[in-house]
Amino acid sequence: MAHAADAHPGHGTAAGTAVAHEEGQQHPIRLYLVVWVWLFVLSTFSYLVDYFHLQGMLRWTLILLLMMLKAGLIVAVFMHMKWERLALGYAILLPPVAVLIFMAIMMLEADHTLLSRLQFLSRTPG
Amino acid sequence: MEGIAQAQAPATMEPAGGMQGFVADWSSDQRAFKNVSWGKAMMWIFLLSDTFIFGCFLLSYMTVRMSTTVPWPNPSEVFALEIAGQHLPLILIAIMTFVLITSSGTMAMAVNCGYRRDRARTAALLLVTALFGAAFVGMQAFEWTKLIHEGVRPWGNPWGAEQFGSAFFMITGFHGTHVTIGVIFLLIVARKVWRGDYDTGRPGFFTSRKGRYEIVEITGLYWHFVDLVWVFIFALFYLW
């Protein structure tokens, strides 16, 4: 971070005390390339899951695992979340947990709808 | 004055890290996001709201797919293509995924070059990113055309559950719109970088504020987010 401050000469005089911690994010290009290659490899694996017609729990586990790994790499490295302070990280990454809770509720709801449809809208009489 | 502030700053102003820093940042009653400019913080908050929008789309897709008694069309076959006599399942979607990841890589490079004030390389990488983005939108347009010709509509399709069409058009359409806006955004920033706006401090045409190379990183945040959403769409819509 030391050289980040002099990378922006003149800027930030109006921002007051914040000048001391300049907002530049400077990381070695090598790291980006490694992450890039990993994203390619993980995407290839995702595609192969479909190509080899894997089914059932194995398919689900692999799909979700590869998805989370890719998302994690993008957010942590490409979007620099790994190097941001926790105050920003929690403010952005915690609220989406609400989506997961919503998802659990909707799964119950969908199951209920499916059972009702099977019970009351079944084609077979009786 | 500024020189003194810079010389003293690292020794006296370094805020605490970890959990202690988290509590201190939020309770300081001044500025919660210490080393993040308002532009970057606002982009993150916008992306959070976008997360909820895409989250709700994917949730409604999950709900209709789980609750229908009609079999769901098999995406692996719906999105298959014949290339050189070879039947390849889901191939176009795989290519689109790789194109988008590649564009994310070039974007990360552009941010890096931007902070090193490498004007020409930053502009070139931004243009390459925009080009990959445009290619992605082009392939998506091809995909839509193909499906519409095969009879997929928001209210029905030849292979199974009617909800397939509405979920597909809604989710990929909204994502494609994001990519399109991103391409426009990238082209504008590339032009500004190329012209040297961030070196000379030329005021922006809309905000009249001086731009700086951080704009490249903020554009990058948006672009990586578009890629991030695609990761979820790829896994949940195409691979389920």
UniProtKB/TrEMBL annotation, chain A:
InterPro entries xref list: Cyt_c_oxidase_su4_prok
User: According to its record, how does it sit in the membrane?
Assistant: Multi-pass membrane protein
Keyword Acyltransferase listed: no
Question: Where mainly located?
Answer: membrane
Among its keywords, does the record have Transport?
Answer: no
What keywords is this UniProt entry annotated with? Cell membrane, Membrane, Transmembrane, Transmembrane helix
Q: Provide one Gene Ontology cellular component.
A: plasma membrane
Its domain of life reads Bacteria
> Where would you find the membrane-spanning parts of this chain?
29-49, 61-81, 87-108
Location relative to the cell? Cell membrane
Q: What is this protein called?
A: Cytochrome C oxidase subunit IV
From TrEMBL, chain B:
Membrane topology value: Multi-pass membrane protein
InterPro entries per the UniProt record, alphabetical: Cyt_c/ubiquinol_Oxase_su3, Cyt_c_oxidase-like_su3, Cyt_c_oxidase_su3-like_sf, Cyt_c_oxidase_su3_a-hlx
Task: Tell me a Gene Ontology molecular-function term this record carries.
Answer: cytochrome-c oxidase activity
User: Where do the TM regions start and end?
Assistant: 41-64, 84-111, 123-144, 164-189, 220-239
Superkingdom per UniProt: Bacteria
GO CC terms for this protein? Answer: plasma membrane
The record's listing under SUPFAM superfamilies reads: Cytochrome c oxidase subunit III-like
Subcellular localization is given as: Cell membrane
All residue ranges annotated as the Heme-copper oxidase subunit III family profile domain in the record? 43-240
What keywords are annotated for this sequence in UniProt? Cell membrane, Membrane, Transmembrane, Transmembrane helix
GO terms under biological process: aerobic electron transport chain
Q: What is its main location?
A: membrane
> What's this protein's family per the entry?
Belongs to the cytochrome c oxidase subunit 3 family.
Description of how the protein assembles with itself and partners: Heterooctamer of two A chains, two B chains, two C chains and two D chains.
Per its database record, what is this protein's job?
A: Cytochrome bo(3) ubiquinol terminal oxidase is the component of the aerobic respiratory chain of E.coli that predominates when cells are grown at high aeration. Has proton pump activity across the membrane in addition to electron transfer, pumping 2 protons/electron.
Name the record gives this protein: Cytochrome bo(3) ubiquinol oxidase subunit 3
Q: Whose protein is this, by species?
A: Neoroseomonas soli
